[in-house]
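pipeline stage [seq->struct] | target=Ninja-family protein | organism=Musa troglodytarum | residues=81
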Amino acid sequence: MRDMPCVSTRGDGPNGRRVEGFLYKYREGEDVRIVCVCHGRFFTPAEFVKHGGGGDVAHSLRHIVVSPSPPGIVAVMEWEQ
């Protein structure tokens, strides 16, 4: 979990919902996969943007914000295992 950066995206419009997840696969030569926090499902970047309420976009990775995993989230997830 420590090596899984947090990601988020926001749907279209002023009331677009924010969806958060973790980068699951992101090494060179592998397809990028994101697991959403709300459902635990795995998505491609384009699917993740749609999951957040966004539409079809040309460059889905430009609509996803990546940040380091906050220590509190890692601690909670390790405790739950």
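stage status: PASS
auto-comment: Confidence is low (pLDDT under 50) at residues 73-81. Strands lie at 6-10, 18-25, 33-36, 42-43, 65-67.
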